[in-house]
Write a structure and sequence with these properties.
The protein has helices spanning 22-39, 44-60, 62-73, 77-101, 135-146, 160-172, 190-195, 208-220, 243-255, 272-287, 307-322, 354-357, 373-381, 396-403, 438-444, and strands spanning 3-7, 12-17, 105-106, 113-120, 123-127, 150-154, 180-182, 201-205, 224-228, 233-237, 265-270, 326-329, 344-347, 364-367, 385-386, 389-392, 412-413, 428-429, 432-433, 446-453. By secondary structure, the chain is an alpha/beta fold. The strands form 5 sheets. It has a 7-stranded mixed sheet, sandwiched between helices. A 6-stranded mixed sheet has the order 7-6-5-8-9-19, with helices on both faces. Strands 3-4-20 form a 3-stranded antiparallel sheet. Strand 13, helix 12 (354-357) and strand 14 (364-367) form a beta-alpha-beta unit. Helix 4 crosses helix 15 (438-444) and helix 9 (243-255) crosses helix 10 (272-287). The radius of gyration is 22 Å and the shape is globular. The structure holds NADP nicotinamide-adenine-dinucleotide phosphate.
Length: 454
């Protein structure tokens, strides 16, 4: 099957690429391995220089990249620029802190001297999704490269132009030739890449189904594996919350990137006392979002990334309504060529509905009303997922106590869940395992080695 670059706003094909055969894959992995053998000999200062160059190029080419993202997966230009700037931030972050993160750590033991040292493990295969087609890649590649590894990328098949632009970016930033390679392979060929003796670890950001598949291949071949999977983040609104602020943030968190974010506020959980007031603010603000051409500067909501994803989402919505949820905004696809779906809100979502249990990966919020704070915490944890969560209350100390009881990779109090290069990112339960970003991210793909000397 070829790689097809298709504009989801118009449903027109932009470009097609032929997928590689097995021979091309083997040759590329061999080249990547040799490039990493060279790269491992560079100093951290030399690696930092390349990483800063990548950041500079990202700044310089921000408009070009944002346009590419817009036409391939429908992200509005404004959001695309923000994504590219965030990539630059992450590259600079690892350029500045990589040396410190990789330093030996002395440990007092019965030895004359003992310490922990950090070494690259080889080639890291990144299997990445289309929703943040630049940032998801930089998030694994920047720390992995800084640690001295090489990277090979199997990107989502609907963003080949972004995938090739990233390869070019690392080439232009003067990283060792072939150190970062985009593999034009299909999902079915990922198993072969994992099995290769030239691949030493794999990291996936994607669905639970792909996670299970990739983890099983990694297990079979005893390769290190990190999984960043789906989420259905709780957004708890307590009775003393600043409702205006909470509603504005809920709109941003749920509907940015047309709702296609793993850490979007997918389950909105207001407590009974303020549920009606909060919901009317939330509906009013969501209805105000301007949907349209992702290439227009004023657009806030573009199309979804693919028509099949919109169809799947709408099926979840209609099933949930049949099961008792109430549509209070949107909930009908926009007719026409593009994969447009309006900002939508389902109220009265209960355990009996799909929207309660499943991730809604698009612009649909599920409102689950809780009788009180205790029930809100129960609902927040009553999910297979455990990625992000947020709590809204004027009593931040009390919200902090509640945060300790939420089973998730992060809890934000009075703020929107987002990734930040300085903080670890990842989930628990069916949201995956392992961490990206911060010093935790760089050490996921390092051999943590003990040295003991008497
Ligand atoms: P997906 O279908 O799992 O695709 C992600 C990547 O995995 C793509 O490159 C895809 O290739 C590949 N892939 C799919 N099935 C595979 C298989 N059986 N074996 C090997 N590779 C396979 O995910 P998606 O639907 O595009 O992305 C949305 C999901 O990702 C959501 O669940 C979302 O929450 C999650 N996500 C998580 C995070 C996080 O940080 N935790 C961030 C973003 C998204 P093809 O495109 O060729 O199929």
């Amino acid at each position: 099957m070829p790689y097809i670059s298709l504009n989801p706003a118009t449903n027109k094909t932009l470009k097609t690429y032929t997928s590689w055969d097995g021979r091309q894959l083997v040759a590329a992995l061999e080249q990547a391995y040799h490039a990493q053998r060279t790269w491992v000999c560079t100093t951290l200062a030399e690696r930092a220089e390349c990483m800063h160059s990548a950041a500079t190029l990202l700044h310089e080419q921000v408009d070009e990249y944002a346009r590419l993202i817009a036409i391939e997966m429908g992200k509005p230009l404004r959001e695309g620029r923000a994504e590219v700037e965030k990539c630059a931030l992450a590259c600079d972050y690892y350029a500045v802190h990589g040396d410190h993160f990789m330093q030996n750590e002395l440990v007092q033991t019965d030895a004359n001297k003992s310490y922990v040292s950090y070494h690259p493990i080889g080639i890291v295969l990144g299997v990445m999704p289309w929703n943040f087609p630049f940032f998801q890649v930089i998030r694994f590649a920047a720390p992995a490269l800084m640690a001295g590894n090489g990277c090979v990328l199997k990107h989502a098949s609907n963003v080949p132009q972004c995938a090739l632009a990233l390869e070019q970016l690392f080439r232009d930033a003067k990283f060792t030739s072939h150190l970062f390679t985009t593999l034009m392979i299909e999902a079915a060929d990922v198993a072969e890449a994992i099995a290769s003796h030239n691949v030493h670890a794999v990291t996936l950001t994607g669905s639970e189904t792909a996670g299970r598949e990739i983890a099983s291949h990694a297990g079979r071949h005893l390769k290190k594996c990190v999984l960043e999977l789906g989420g259905s983040d709780a957004f708890i609104v307590l009775k003393d919350a600043d409702l205006e602020q909470a509603a504005s943030t809920a709109v941003r968190s749920r509907f940015q990137n047309c709702g296609q974010s793993c850490i979007a506020a997918k389950r909105i959980i207001p407590v009974a006392e303020i549920a009606d007031e909060f919901l009317s603010l939330f509906i009013e603000k969501a209805a105000d979002l301007k949907m349209g051409d992702p290439l227009s500067e004023t657009t806030q909501l573009g199309p979804m990334a693919r028509l099949d994803l919109r169809d799947d989402l709408h099926q979840q919505v209609t099933d949930s309504i049949t099961q008792g949820a109430q549509s209070v905004l949107g909930c009908e696809p926009i007719p026409g060529e593009g994969a447009f779906y309006p900002p939508s809100i389902l109220d009265r979502v209960t355990m009996k509905t799909r929207a309660y249990h499943e991730e809604l990966f698009g612009p649909v919020a599920a409102v689950i009303r809780a009788t009180d704070e205790e029930e809100a915490v129960h609902i927040a944890n009553d999910t297979r997922f455990g990625l992000g969560s947020s709590i809204w209350s004027r009593d931040a100390e009390h919200a902090e106590e509640i945060a300790q009881r939420i089973e998730a990779g992060c809890t934000f109090i009075n703020g929107m869940v987002r990734s930040d290069p300085r903080l670890p990112f990842g989930g628990t339960k069916a949201s995956g395992f392992g961490r990206e970003l911060s010093y935790h991210g760089i050490r996921e793909f390092a051999n943590i080695k003990t040295v003991w000397i008497r």
